[in-house]
Amino acid sequence: MAVDLRIDRACLPGRDGEVALTIDDGRIEAVLEPGGAALPTARSVFDAAGRVVLPGFVDAHTHACFAGARLDEWEKKLAGVPYLRLLEDGGGIMATVRATRAADEDALVDSLRERLERMLRHGTTTVEVKSGYGLDTATELKMLRAIRRAGEATAMTVVPTACIGHALDPDLDRDVFIRRTIEETLPAVSAEFPGIALDAYCETGAWSRDDCLALFEAGQAAGHPIRVHADQFNALGMIEAAVERGYRSVDHLEASDADGLRRLADSTVFGVMLPASGFHLDERYGDGRTFVEAGGRLAIASNYNPGSAPCFAMPFVIQLAVRKLGLTVAEAVEAATAAGAELLELPDRGRIEAGLRADLIVLDATDLRTLAFEFGGNPVLRTLVGGRWATAT
């Protein structure tokens, strides 16, 4: 009986020579070495002609659901205004909050679907998308519903995260806002999206360490895994808290010192580094080399958002990771595929093995190193999602 698809003459990282991949019912059926048994018949055959085939990219940290634009803010940044000053002046995240509150759910769905298609064309087949531009219960739920609907309308896998501690609402007393988030927004999220990951931004001018811990304690009690933005500009002790309390990940890590990274590496908590933020903001990058050599589980992601990281392309994230985080090409690819899948608790993808989901990309290159060496274009020739081609030749 014929399989759905056979990819001939594929070059896989870590393997000598070319192989053939057979795909059936949305999954990888076999990886066939050259010189073995006759290749099985297939309803469709694609000749990779020696090109590199990789797992689809898993972008495990994005804020791709939003309304509005922040080009004026970017001009101020170019003129030398620090990002934290923009936050204090009501810009930054709050500018997007105001636009997102004003947008209806359908508009958020439509704009997110367009962004997801751009990401797909650049090889992302699984993406995490956070809420966080609402800062009130109604808008946070509106965002999460929009993320869910957009995910249902795309071939990609879309994983929502409730980032209900993304910023402070300057129009409310701080304590009142924190209490409302924990006592009103969190229960509403738990009721409609049980088990969704929670996230918060622990930083000077945003949520304090104590505020985050109060939110996360309530969230864990309600059955939510915890992720946290931490150590972007200042190290405020969140690595230690995350390790002690068994969070899923600490994301950013630009301000983490070597001791903090080693402490994180000694735990089961993922480190997520976001080099597009350093590229766009201030040329500050996490020390990926120290973290990986200490045995840490590292994922890299785009952090796609309208302000600090307007980047939707995981190939560029890999190119930055090799240049700025100190990773080898193979380490960067691992951090952009298998590690992200493990972080998102999706064990059926991120690797090319029999039985796993057929989310694959074909690079327009015959040497994996080209993916990181060249920059400025799209290296992805074709994308396969769940065993179906998602892009044309």
Q: Globular, elongated, flat, extended or rod-shaped: what is the shape? A: globular
Q: Kindly state the percentage of residues in helix.
A: 25-40%
Oligomer: single chain
For the termini, the CA-CA separation is 27 Å
What number of domains? 2
Rounded radius of gyration (Å): 21 Å
- DSSP E strands, number: 16
CATH topology label of the largest domain: TIM Barrel
- CATH-level-2 architecture of the largest domain: Alpha-Beta Barrel
Give the neighbour order of strands across the main sheet.
Answer: 6-7-8-9-10-11-12-13
Average of the residue pLDDT scores: 95
CATH class of the largest domain: Alpha Beta
Structural class: alpha/beta
Residues in β-strands, percent? 15-25%
Classified in CATH, the superfamily of the largest domain is Metal-dependent hydrolases
Task: Give the low-pLDDT segments.
Answer: none
In DSSP terms (H or I, runs of 4 or more residues), the helix count works out at 15
Describe this entry's structure for a reader.
The chain is an alpha/beta fold and 393 residues long. It has 2 domains: 3-55 and 350-389, Urease, subunit C, domain 1, CATH 2.30.40; 57-343, TIM Barrel (Alpha-Beta Barrel). It contains 15 helices and 16 strands. The protein has helices at residues 71-78, 83-88, 93-102, 105-121, 137-152, 174-192, 209-221, 238-245, 258-265, 275-280, 288-293, 314-325, 329-336, 338-343, 369-373, and strands spanning 3-10, 19-24, 27-32, 42-47, 53-55, 57-59, 124-130, 157-165, 197-201, 226-230, 249-252, 270-273, 298-300, 360-363, 380-385, 388-389. It has an 8-stranded parallel β-sheet. Strands 3-2-1-4 form a 4-stranded mixed β-sheet, with no helix packed on it. Helix 5 links the parallel strand 7 (124-130) and strand 8 (157-165). The longest helix is centred in the middle third of the chain and has 19 residues, at 174-192. The protein is globular and about 70 Å long.
